[in-house]
Amino acid sequence: MRDGARRTRTFLANRRFQQFIVAVILVNAGTLGLETFPAVVERHGHLLTAVDHAALYIFVAELAAKVYVERRAFLRDPWNVFDTVIVAIALAPTAGGLSVLRSLRILRALRLLSVVPSLRRVVSALLRAMPGMSSIVVLLSLVLYVAAVMATKLYGETAPERFGSLPTSLFTLFQTMTGDDWGNIAREVMSRHPSAWIFFTIFVLLCTFVVLNLFMAVVVSAMDEENAHERAWEEASAQRILDELTALRAEVTALREQRALD
In angstroms, rounded to a whole number, what is the distance separating the alpha carbons of residues 117 and 32? Predict the structure, then answer.
């Protein structure tokens, strides 16, 4: 690696530079939030625009430096691809039919996911948990569908606004699953069907206290695996450094013995 690339890599990996990037992301996110207040925009609109452009130029310069250092390996890192997409959206024109992209500038705040190591670990754990989550999603969808069909047939005439059709029942039961006003929904049905509490109680127990907790269990398990993987990587790195130091010490000892013999 050339000296310029080596110095650039060291600069990018410097802790103070990483803290500076985090500060720029937070400031930029704050200015984008302030742009939602018309009074603030009227008074300080030019300043907010200048800060926004400055932050964007810093992000572009950082990505250019990474490309200079890593070259072909740049796109092999998913986080680099993520950062590139976020910055590319910010660089897209915001006039005419593409004005909706202006609102997507706030996505730059998501760069914290790639800059802060602890957030990277959380995202990696979530991605690791996706295969396990897919099975739980299928189970939850099945329970929701069966319950929606039953509710439509049992309570469709009693509460047509909530259970009059299968799509309506699906939405109502999804609302019930989230705990949003499900007590009033149940009481409305129970005014005509006193035993309806059995249906709603079983549904809430299955979805809220069983299936949704399975999501938490899968995520926690993935977090444990991610932490274990990181600890193993750190231990392997420490062992490599220790082996290199041992080999270097052996070489120095051999050189000293050779000099003594000479």
Answer: 24
Other C-beta atoms within 10 Å of 63: how many? 17
Q: Residue type for 204, please?
A: V
- Domain range holding 248? 120-257
**Residue 250 phi/psi, 5° resolution?**
-65, -40
Dihedral of alpha carbons 56, 58, 63, 64, sign:
positive
Q: Are 12 and 129 part of one and the same domain?
A: no
Measured in whole angstroms, how far is the alpha carbon of residue 57 from the centre of its chain? Answer: 24
Is the domain of 218 the same as that of 153?
A: yes
Q: How does pLDDT run across 101-152, given as a tens digit for each residue?
A: 667 777 778 888 878 877 877 777 777 777 777 888 888 889 899 999 999 9
**What is d(CA 192, CA 261) in angstroms, rounded to the nearest whole number?**
104
- Where among 115, 135, 151 does a domain terminate? 115
Same domain, 90 and 139: no
Gap between the Cα atoms of 166 and 188, Å rounded: 18
> What pTM did the predictor assign?
0.65
Residue 262 placed within a domain: no
Same domain, 106 and 215: no
Spell 80-109 as b/e; 16+ CB within 10 A means b: beebbebbeebeeeeeeeeeebeeebebbb
The reply to whether 252 and 146 lie within a common domain is: yes
